[in-house]
Structures are given as structure tokens and as C-alpha cells.
Write a structure and sequence with these properties.
The complex is a heterodimer of chains A (338) and B (336). Chain A is mainly α. Chain A is built from 13 helices and 2 strands. Chain B has a domain of 204 residues. Classes of the chains: A mainly alpha (338), B mainly alpha (336).
């Protein structure tokens, strides 16, 4: 076996190993690890994936994902705790409302690009946060406590196994769904719009409509994460969607690689591990997170997965040519348009 | 496609019509609440005056802060997400000097402006100088800086809300000579300061040689550079001035309102909304945006029916939607 093949085999081995560990996590690790790290990694990753999906396929860096996450979380909490809806029904309604809000956000923001888009979505995120902070119908700054997941998923605190698998299934389905979406006509149009909106609109595509629909799809992903988080924490409060959380989700996406879908979970794993085990080491956790974020944006804008790909490419080159690995779906061309 | 022609026409009028309709409704409602009980001292006109003055002075504060934001963007295309942190830093520096070190208000104000400007300048020289034009990356870098600054300010200045004491006579109230009303002198001073900052920036940009260089740099960076002008030096000055304005806003805001962790994102939001409404990079736009935001915030928190007061933030959102529906790049924004 050539060195190149051996390297490729190692690479696939690592990926398969990670997937296997993810599938067996509740068996392999303690209940504490499953509930304090693994489940959180899954829904944080999902929230970040809604951002990396938009960035990678649509070239839109949105900071409104935590807002949509929050809309879904607050809706499911309100409907199931205060209106006593069936948990599944409440979740469905919450997804619907959040996607509706996502459509509205998308329709407004789709007229702008790049840095303007970032600013407008950041304003949306903060307005949503201040709304939930003030609205007494959603418990104002207390939020809503005592959210229970459906009976099927059991108690998320004492027995996190079921909610873990529910989250895992959501993640796998959404990952596969997005990869599929990327190959459909809609997904290809979206990538065309990312690379050259002017040419696409000259070809007759409605730029704003496609962007709005992409935004609504991302809203769906974020709201699934929001519902899962409300179930997992059994509560939601405005603190879960404040500016710090918004930046946390951005940090997760940047650590993992802003333009790589799977990077979201890699970033979430690193972030949650640090959050769980390193926060106690120093009172200045946020400063260190900021420094890590700064270092990544400066050194490797593609994040950890980008770094891994660079290493992979180097080793492939060293071990003897072969076909060039396919380029990442999104080559960030920021600045080229400015 | 020809069939699209009519909807396009419709859309062009639908936006402004919607905006004007909402505005007319809002004004009618405020008018009814304010003048419905007559113009006497027992009516609601005095409170309308006070609320409007609150809105105007808040707009002044928003303008001072957002002017720095829009200046930096206009020249360098840098969206400085750490602008709110510089606001809070300026406020804290002035507070710490006046409250703990016995420095007077005015020296503390100058020191705070220099501190904010200095930190902004260092950030620009270290992190933003070498990646000119990569606007998203630069925005992410300034976000990272804002995380670090927010945490470090929490360490040094604590988490309790602090207020700066205004100097001498500005701490008193002035009589307005209508309805026997009184109003805090400092808030009126901030309004005056906003006017001064606006006029100063306008004159500086339109009437001086340095302003001419700045305008040339905005229009064509490489050509200006080719003419032998040190564009990097101009950028550094502009970044310093923009950051110093944020810090100045922080001092005024810390005196008028209060300083606490979270105020940084609060004022980043207001700066964002102001420039989104007014158009990025436009000074007049920042003034108009600040005026709209300040008035809408204050009027809505007072004139919304009592059970909806907590929803007043939605009106800010509605303002944003209406403006973006009419002018996607803001009132005076130029599309790239």
C-alpha cells in the first residue's frame, strides 16, 4: 500500500471512529459527560450549522441564528408549559413560527450582502433579545422554566440517553438533508448566487427570493436546535440568546470553519469541552475564548477543519501527487467584492 | 420579463406608501394622546415636551457615538464591532478618574477620549492594517477584540452600574419657561455637543485639506495613494477620531444614563440601527437615523398603551423594516 493510500485510510478511519464514538456515546461515557457535554455539543453544533449552511452555500454570514433559535425555544416553552400543549405539537408549532420569523428576517435582509447583511442580522438578533428580555408573556428576564420534553424522550437530566439520540438523529438527518439540498437545483442556484449574484440575476434568477428561502431553511435548522435546547435544559431565558451567546455561536462556527458544514460540530465540541472543563481553571474564560477566536481569524480563517484540510493536502502532496482533492464548496472570496 | 414590469412599479410605490402610512398613524396616535386633553397645564402637552426632549437628547448621544462608527466605515470600509466596547471603555475611564482619582470632569473627558482613541488606534494598527478590504474578516477580528475588552472591563471596573457626576452647573436643571417645566442641564448640553460634533465633522471633512484627502481616500484609495498621500496615516487619524468619538459618547452616556456591562452591546446596537437607517458612511444619514431612533424609542415607551409598553422594542424593529423596505441601503446610503 502506498503512503498516500495509507494516509487516506487513516483519514477515513478517524472519521469513522468519531462517528462510532458519537453513536455509542451514552454507552462509552458517564451520564454526566453525556448530559453536560455530548447533548450540548449536538444542539450547539446544530445552531452553528445553520450559520455554516448559510455561509457555505449562500455566502451569507448571519448573526440572527440565535434569535431564531430563541424564537423556537420560547415558543415551545410557552406552548407546552403555559398552554399545556402536547410536547410534539408544541415543537411543531414552534418550528413553524420560527421559520415564519426567519422568512420575515430573510425577506428584509436579503436585499443586502456581505458586511451589510452581517450588520442587519446582528441588529435582528439584538432586537429579538431585547424583546424577550422585556416581554412579560415570555417571562421577561426570568424566561420560562419547567419545559418537559415529550414522554418518549424521558427525563433529560437524569437519563440523557434518549434526548442524546433524539439530538443525534436530528443532526444526522439535517446534515444529510443539507448535503442533499446542496445538489438540488435550489442548492446549486444558491451556490451560484454566492459566487456571482449579478450573473445569476442576469440569467433570470430572483436573487432575493432564493436568499430568503435559504434563510428560512437555515431558520428551520436553528429552530430545531432551539427546541432541543429548551427540552434539554428544561428551560429557556433571554440569557440563552443574548449577544454573548450570539458571539459564542459565531465563535463555534469560526473555530470549526465558517464555510464547512461539519465544522459546526467540530467547533461545538471544542467550545463545549473548553466551556465545561476550562472555565473553572481561570476566571477570565471569556478573555481566552476571545484570544482563541482572534488567533483563528488571523491565522486560519477556515478554522480547524480548514487547518485539517491543509494538512491533508500537504501530506497528499508529499506522499506523491494523485488527484487534487476537491475544493471546499465555498472558497471565501470576501473582500473581492469590496 | 415583461410581466414583471407592473409588480416592480407597484413595489416601488408600495414601500414608501407603507412607510408614510405607518408614520401618519403613529403621529395621529401621539397627537391624540398629547393634545386630546387640551393645551392647558393640566393636559398632556408638558409630558409630550419632556418626552420629545428626552428623545432629542438621546438622539444627540446616539449621533455622537454613531458618527465615529460611520466615519470609520466611510473611509476604511471597516465595520468596527468593538465600537460599543470603546464607548463603554471611554465611560469607565472618565468614571474611574472622576470618582476614584479626584480628577475634574473636563480633564477626565479629554483623557477618556484619548484612551478610547488610543485603544482603537492600537487595534487598527495591529489587526486591521494588513488585511484592508477583507471586510468580513475585519468585522470578525473586531468582534474578537470586543469579547476581550468586555471581559477585561468587567475585571477592572466591576459589574455594578456606575454613573459619572456632571460638573458644576451642568448638574442642575434649567427652567424651560413653558408650563413651568425644568429639564436637566446636562442632557441639553449633550444635545449641543452633538450639534458641535456634527458641525465640526462636517466642516472638517468639507472645508479642510485633511478632509479633502479623506474624501479622496473614500472615493479611490489607490489613486490617492499614488498621488503621494500617505493613506495609511490618514486612516490611522480617522480611526483615532472615530474611536475617540465612541469614548466621548461613553462619557456623555455614563453621565446621562449609566455604565454597566451590557451597555457596550446596547450602544453597538444603537450605532448599527442608526447607520442602517441613515446609510453607512454618511454623516447626515447618521444624524437622521439618530433622530428617528431616539424619538421612536422615547415616544413609543411613553405613548404605547400600557399593556404594550414592553413591546416598544418592536417599534424600533418596525422602523428598521420600513426604512429598509423603502431604501435598502438606508436613507443616504450608496450601494456598492
Amino acid at each position: 500500500m502506498s503512503a498516500r493510500r495509507a494516509w487516506a485510510a487513516t483519514w477515513y478511519g478517524v472519521v469513522a471512529g468519531v462517528l462510532l464514538v458519537a453513536a455509542l456515546c451514552p454507552v462509552l461515557f458517564s451520564t454526566y459527560f453525556t448530559s453536560a457535554v455530548a447533548v450540548i455539543v449536538l444542539w450547539t453544533g446544530l445552531a452553528a450549522a445553520s450559520l455554516t449552511f448559510l455561509a457555505g452555500y449562500g455566502g451569507m454570514i448571519s448573526l440572527a441564528q440565535t434569535a431564531l433559535f430563541g424564537v423556537a425555544g420560547f415558543m415551545v416553552a410557552k406552548l407546552s408549559v403555559e398552554q399545556h400543549w402536547n410536547a410534539w405539537l408544541a415543537a411543531l408549532a414552534a418550528l413553524g413560527v420560527a421559520v415564519g420569523v426567519g422568512l420575515l428576517f430573510g425577506a428584509i435582509a436579503s436585499g443586502s450582502e456581505g458586511i451589510y447583511f452581517l450588520m442587519i442580522t446582528l441588529a435582528f438578533a439584538m432586537l429579538t433579545y431585547y424583546y424577550f428580555l422585556q416581554a412579560p408573556t415570555f417571562g421577561a428576564h426570568e424566561g420560562i422554566n419547567g419545559v418537559m420534553p415529550p414522554k418518549l424522550l424521558g427525563d433529560p437530566v437524569l437519563h440523557p440517553t434518549r434526548i442524546y439520540y433524539a439530538a443525534l438523529i436530528c443532526c444526522v438527518l439535517i446534515y444529510a438533508g443539507v448535503r442533499y439540498l446542496g445538489r438540488t437545483a435550489f442548492g446549486l442556484t444558491l451556490q451560484g448566487l454566492r459566487d456571482d449574484p449579478v450573473r445569476m440575476s442576469a440569467l433570470g434568477y430572483t436573487v432575493r427570493l432564493h436568499r430568503t428561502l435559504a434563510f428560512a431553511s437555515a431558520a428551520f435548522i436553528a429552530s430545531v436546535a432551539g427546541v432541543l435546547s429548551a427540552w434539554d435544559n428544561t428551560r429557556i431565558s433571554p440569557g440563552s440568546i443574548d449577544i454573548t451567546r450570539t458571539i459564542d455561536i459565531l465563535t463555534v462556527a469560526v473555530i470549526g470553519g465558517l464555510y464547512r458544514l461539519e465544522g459546526a460540530w467540530v467547533g461545538a465540541f471544542i467550545f463545549v469541552m473548553l466551556d465545561t472543563y476550562a472555565r473553572g481553571l481561570s476566571d477570565r474564560f471569556e478573555t481566552y475564548i476571545g484570544l482563541v477566536f482572534l488567533a483563528i481569524v488571523i491565522v486560519s480563517p477556515d478554522g480547524v477543519t480548514g487547518l485539517a484540510r491543509t494538512i491533508d493536502r500537504r501530506i497528499r502532496e508529499l506522499t506523491g501527487g494523485g488527484a487534487k482533492p476537491p475544493q471546499s464548496p465555498a472558497t471565501p472570496t470576501e473582500g473581492a467584492a469590496a | 420579463m415583461r410581466t414583471l414590469a407592473v409588480p416592480a412599479q407597484l413595489r416601488r410605490f408600495a414601500g414608501p406608501a407603507l412607510g408614510l402610512g405607518v408614520l401618519a398613524l403613529a403621529l395621529a396616535w401621539v397627537g391624540y394622546r398629547a393634545f386630546g386633553a387640551g393645551f392647558g397645564a393640566g393636559g398632556n402637552v408638558p409630558s409630550l415636551l419632556i418626552i420629545s426632549l428626552n428623545g432629542l437628547t438621546l438622539a444627540g448621544l446616539y449621533f455622537i457615538t454613531a458618527a465615529g462608527f460611520t466615519l470609520i466605515f466611510g473611509l476604511m470600509r471597516v465595520v468596527n464591532m468593538a465600537h460599543g466596547s470603546l464607548y463603554l471603555l471611554g465611560g469607565y475611564v472618565a468614571w474611574s478618574l472622576t470618582a476614584n482619582h479626584g480628577v475634574g470632569f473636563w480633564p477626565a473627558l479629554v483623557a477618556a477620549a484619548f484612551a478610547g482613541g488610543g485603544v482603537g488606534l492600537i487595534m487598527q494598527q495591529l489587526f486591521l492594517r494588513w488585511n484592508l478590504g477583507q471586510d468580513l474578516r475585519q468585522a470578525l477580528i473586531t468582534i474578537a477584540v470586543s469579547i476581550i475588552l468586555a471581559d477585561q472591563m468587567l475585571v477592572h471596573f466591576g459589574g455594578i452600574a456606575e454613573t459619572i457626576t456632571p460638573p458644576g452647573r451642568l448638574a442642575d436643571s434649567v427652567r424651560l419657561h413653558v408650563y413651568g417645566l425644568q429639564y436637566p442641564a446636562f442632557r441639553l448640553f449633550v444635545l449641543g455637543a452633538a450639534l458641535a460634533v456634527g458641525c465640526g465633522l462636517w466642516a472638517g471633512i468639507k472645508r479642510t485639506r485633511f478632509g479633502m484627502v479623506v474624501r479622496a481616500g473614500v472615493d479611490d484609495r489607490s489613486m490617492t495613494s499614488a498621488l503621494g498621500i500617505n493613506v495609511q496615516f490618514v486612516f490611522a487619524i480617522a480611526f483615532f477620531v472615530g474611536s475617540a468619538l465612541a469614548a466621548l459618547g461613553g462619557v456623555f452616556g455614563g453621565t446621562m444614563l449609566s455604565l454597566a456591562p451590557g451597555e457596550d452591546s446596547n450602544f453597538l446596537l444603537s450605532s448599527l440601527v442608526v447607520v442602517i437607517i441613515g446609510g453607512l458612511g454618511s454623516l447626515g444619514g447618521a444624524a437622521l437615523g439618530a433622530l428617528l431612533l431616539g424619538l421612536v424609542e422615547q415616544l413609543s415607551s411613553f405613548y404605547l398603551p400600557a399593556s404594550y409598553t414592553s413591546d416598544s422594542i418592536l417599534l424600533t424593529f418596525a422602523l428598521l423594516i420600513v426604512v429598509l423596505a423603502i431604501r435598502p441601503a438606508g436613507f443616504f446610503g450608496r450601494t456598492a
